[in-house]
Design brief:
It is a single chain. This protein has 189 residues and is of the alpha+beta class. It has one domain. The strands form 2 sheets. Strands 4-3-5-6-7 form a 5-stranded antiparallel β-sheet. The longest helix is centred in the N-terminal third of the chain and has 51 residues. The termini are far apart.
Length: 189
């Protein structure tokens, strides 16, 4: 009979506990990895959306008239309202140079607010309650050639996410934001 029992060997309680412990530690590590990857994925989605909103505003700025007329005189759009929900709204700044600090603070005419669906819900200095993204832009004459070139900058960040465009070390991007910079030159029509 002893011979029959020795052939019916199973797992001991100690072996089962060790195997269960290893499995638990492994699953806990995988759960942490899953949570971390979900967080990174959400941040990447937010940053991508901010980049799309920045590109949209940059295209609006680049689409405004800024060149020379048939007589060779400079012409510029200085009245389109890019901060309103509709660009046809009166009282815009167009490509008028922005005041200093327009990327750091909400400046009327150089800032608009976007909801979670990507719709512009207005401009001004105070964001409406449903604001998810704040778009700020600056228009500055290029110091080397102020009559024929300008620097356009667009900064998009989550509402309440950034106090200044130069927060942190120089060149460091704040999470969930996008910043585009381009130089536009006057060309003959």
């Amino acid at each position: 009979m002893n011979t029959a029992r020795s052939r019916e060997r199973g797992f001991s309680l100690l072996e089962t506990l060790v195997a269960t412990s290893i499995l638990t530690v492994t699953l806990a590590g995988l759960a942490q990895l899953l949570v971390a990857s979900m967080r990174v994925n959400a941040a990447a989605r937010t940053t991508t959306y901010a980049a799309l909103l920045a590109q949209q505003k940059m295209e609006q700025l680049r689409g405004l008239t800024w060149g020379f007329d048939l007589l060779g005189l400079p012409v510029a759009d200085t009245s389109t309202n890019l901060a309103a929900a509709s660009a046809a709204a009166p009282g815009g700044k167009g490509l008028t140079p922005s005041p200093p600090g327009s990327l750091a603070t909400n400046t009327a005419g150089y800032c608009d607010f976007v909801d979670r669906f990507g719709r512009v819900i207005g401009g001004g200095t105070t964001p409406p309650g449903e604001t998810v993204y704040v778009r700020r832009w600056s228009i500055e004459p290029l110091p080397a050639s102020p009559a024929t070139a300008m620097v356009l900058q667009v900064l998009v960040s989550r509402a309440g996410g950034r106090a200044s465009p130069d927060t942190g070390a120089s060149g460091v991007r704040v999470p969930d934001e996008a910043r585009l910079v381009t130089v536009r030159t006057r060309k003959a029509s």
